[in-house]
Amino acid sequence: MDIEELRTFVELADAGGVTSAARRLGVSKSIVSRRLARLEADLGVQLLARTTRGAALTEAGATFRNHAAKICAEIDLAKDSILPAGDVRGRLRVAAPLSFGPTHLAAVFADLARRHPQLHLQVCYSDRFVDLVSEGFDCAIRLGHLQDSNLIARRVGPIYGKLVASPDYISAHGAPETPDDLLDHQALMQGTEAWHFMDGRKSIAIRPQGRFKADNGTALVAAATAGLGIAYLPERLIEVQLASGALVPVMTRFPIPPAGLFVVRPPGQHPVRTVRILTQLLIECFDKAP
């Protein structure tokens, strides 16, 4: 049993198929299959069962995957500790939000790859809540107010929000003056989330209602611009619309408390060196005054 067999198995388990794992590892499918066969022969158990959709973990495989991933992470950490200061290599898998990532984070990822030519960087953009451990991500970039979890989070900058609507919506329905007024308006939302405002030093939470919901911030921007309702959005996501007048701030007497941009990673004693470097780049980019 060697480290490449363990690493290949972890990739297979996370990718769910030989083709995807081979693409991630940069090797042929036959090499992936041979490494898995040797590992299973060494252990004397079947780790993956082939299905019509690819490969699924057996019960033994699911148990072994977590141990194998930890071993690979420890090896990577050991290599990290003896590399020259500027030498960064290996693989970094990052989950980033689809609404914010391509426009505001992609340049940071590109800069990271440019500075470190031996680093293999894979970024997956999605607004769904990614399970870092089970899906094999080294870290994720998340916006807003983090819920309690066992993940380790590092705040890399503030996110300022605004309550906005289109001029057409305001002309037809008026603008809310207080948080309670929002209950009489159409709210554009991701789900059933509460909206938070400040009244001086007092925090106010409102659960508005609306007929249009989307799990993507860009879709909510489009809905607000089309005059479907009032949206609670990060300023960075609506810079163009605010500048053009397609969206205007409403209820400005009750500002939205700042949220955060975070790097979150699975629990462990030490962050991977590549995660530390990415975190520092994000701090340099986002930890600024509004």
From TrEMBL:
- Quote the Pfam families the UniProt record gives: HTH_1, LysR_substrate
What keywords are annotated for this sequence in UniProt?
DNA-binding, Transcription, Transcription regulation
Q: Does the keyword Transmembrane apply?
A: no
Report the residue ranges that make up the HTH lysR-type domain in this protein.
1-58
The family annotation for this protein states: Belongs to the LysR transcriptional regulatory family.
Designated name of the protein? HTH-type transcriptional regulator DmlR
Q: Which organism is it from?
A: Methylobacterium isbiliense
What gene is this protein a product of? dmlR_3
